[in-house]
């Protein structure tokens, strides 16, 4: 068959390589490059191919192979990477997926599972490939000013782009007084008002070619309107439709919401997979946070959809984290430490906390925050897969 997909197998187990080779031959559509064993040669070949697959067994020498996955994922976007392990713990799977693997198999290899992945990859490279919507929409909401909502949204989005190496959109949905462009010192040519008023012209190619990126990262910024009046005729339906375009274009969409419960804000919250509700540790802020949680409950949002983030956290605060959790009836998801000088310097210079001092406690916290968010996405996918696998097993037992 012509136009077969070139495939490289990396494994220290001859049995695993032989099994994979036989399965690839049986499946067809894939060509096994069995004479390629040197890392440098593999890297050069994959870099030159328009479509390829890399099967990597990380059972042994995990750090070496995970590091190679990361290098290939960065340099070879047309290469689909499948990781394999005989000890498929959640942490191992998350680590390889964060490095750039798109699928994971347990060893010994089950033929049907491999064939399902190969079928998906084959469809991806074909002209009639189905669209895979893997996007996660994350909104940062607070109806109380001075909490640090915009700072959290911008730093989280930037760290997600740096860690995952995937395309991330940061949207300023505050139509009246957005601050994202000030926080990142940017002057984008296109703003969200233009996008919403020209939805018939907007697609993924337009967004990736038109939106301004933050420096040399994969973070794309959608600015607030420069004039108050531009947002007057924007409807909830337009916002919802715009999110559909974004979901088909980006891996992550981070939204800095308006501070009101208007229809456009609710449209964003409805379309979000995850809502971060920031608060600081004082009674007025906590009471306000509690009211927002009550409203989210009335809107029918799942409790896991909304997560609490404490901003400007100090260990010696009179009100402890346990007190916060008791008041809100909900665990705190993340604590961003108080670092006045780093954050003020970042805001004044229009850069992220990491660009002021990458080793500061607040910069490290944002980096770990983004890692936790990306891990959460992977872990939810794994949980869904495990639940589905368990159901299949139960169904098979019942049939037997």
Describe what this molecule looks like in 3D:
The protein is an alpha/beta fold. It folds into two domains: 5-130, Response regulator (Rossmann fold, 3-Layer(aba) Sandwich), CATH 3.40.50.2300; 136-371, Rossmann fold, CATH 3.40.50. The protein has 16 helices and 13 strands. The protein has helices spanning 14-27, 39-48, 62-75, 90-99, 111-125, 149-164, 180-183, 192-197, 204-210, 236-247, 263-270, 283-298, 321-328, 340-349, 353-356, 361-399, and strands at 5-10, 30-32, 52-57, 79-85, 103-106, 136-140, 168-172, 212-213, 219-222, 252-256, 274-279, 306-313, 332-337. Strands 8-9-7-10-6-11-12-13 form an eight-stranded mixed β-sheet, with helices on both faces. A five-stranded parallel β-sheet has the order 2-1-3-4-5, with helices on both faces. The chain is globular and about 65 Å long.
Topology:
Blueprint: E1 5-10, H1 14-27, E2 30-32, H2 39-48, E3 52-57, H3 62-75, E4 79-85, H4 90-99, E5 103-106, H5 111-125, E6 136-140, H6 149-164, E7 168-172, H7 180-183, H8 192-197, H9 204-210, E8 212-213, E9 219-222, H10 236-247, E10 252-256, H11 263-270, E11 274-279, H12 283-298, E12 306-313, H13 321-328, E13 332-337, H14 340-349, H15 353-356, H16 361-399
Parallel strand pairs: 1-2, 1-3, 3-4, 4-5, 6-10, 6-11, 7-9, 7-10, 11-12, 12-13
Antiparallel strand pairs: 8-9
């Amino acid at each position: 068959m012509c136009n077969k997909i070139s495939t490289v197998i990396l494994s220290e187990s001859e049995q695993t390589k032989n099994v994979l080779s036989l399965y690839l031959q049986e499946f067809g559509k894939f060509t096994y490059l069995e004479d390629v064993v040197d890392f440098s040669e593999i890297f050069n070949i994959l870099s030159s191919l328009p479509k390829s697959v890399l099967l990597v067994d990380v059972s042994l020498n995990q750090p070496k192979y995970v590091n190679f996955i990361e290098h290939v994922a960065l340099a070879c976007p047309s290469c689909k990477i499948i990781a394999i392990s005989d000890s498929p713990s959640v942490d191992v799977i998350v680590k390889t997926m964060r490095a750039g693997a798109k699928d994971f198999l347990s060893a010994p290899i089950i033929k049907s599972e491999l064939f399902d992945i190969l079928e998906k990859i084959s469809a991806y490279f074909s002209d009639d490939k189905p669209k895979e919507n893997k996007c996660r929409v994350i909104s940062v909401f607070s109806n109380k000013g001075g909490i640090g909502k915009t700072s959290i949204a911008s730093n989280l989005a930037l760290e997600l782009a740096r860690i995952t190496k995937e395309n991330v959109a940061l949207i300023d949905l505050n139509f009246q007084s957005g601050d994202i462009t000030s926080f990142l010192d940017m002057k984008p040519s296109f703003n969200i008002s233009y996008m919403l008023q020209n939805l018939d012209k907007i697609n993924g190619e337009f967004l990736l070619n038109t939106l301004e990126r933050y420096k040399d990262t994969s973070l794309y910024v959608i600015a607030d309107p420069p004039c108050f009046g531009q947002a007057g005729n924007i409807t909830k339906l337009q916002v919802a439709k715009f999110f559909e375009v974004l979901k088909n274009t980006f891996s992550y969409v981070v939204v800095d919401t308006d501070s009101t419960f208007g229809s456009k804000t609710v449209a964003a919250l409805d379309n979000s997979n995850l809502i971060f509700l920031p608060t600081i540790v004082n009674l007025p802020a906590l009471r306000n946070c509690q009211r927002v949680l009550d409203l989210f409950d009335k809107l029918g949002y799942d409790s896991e959809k909304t997560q609490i983030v404490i901003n400007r956290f100090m260990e010696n605060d009179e009100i402890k984290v346990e007190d916060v959790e008791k008041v809100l009836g909900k665990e705190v998801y993340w604590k961003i430490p108080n670092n006045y000088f780093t954050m003020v310097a970042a805001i004044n210079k229009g850069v992220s906390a990491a660009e002021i001092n990458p080793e500061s406690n607040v910069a490290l916290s944002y980096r770990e925050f983004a890692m936790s968010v990306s891990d959460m996405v992977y872990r939810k996918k794994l949980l869904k897969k495990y639940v589905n696998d368990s159901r299949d097993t139960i169904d098979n037992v019942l049939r037997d």
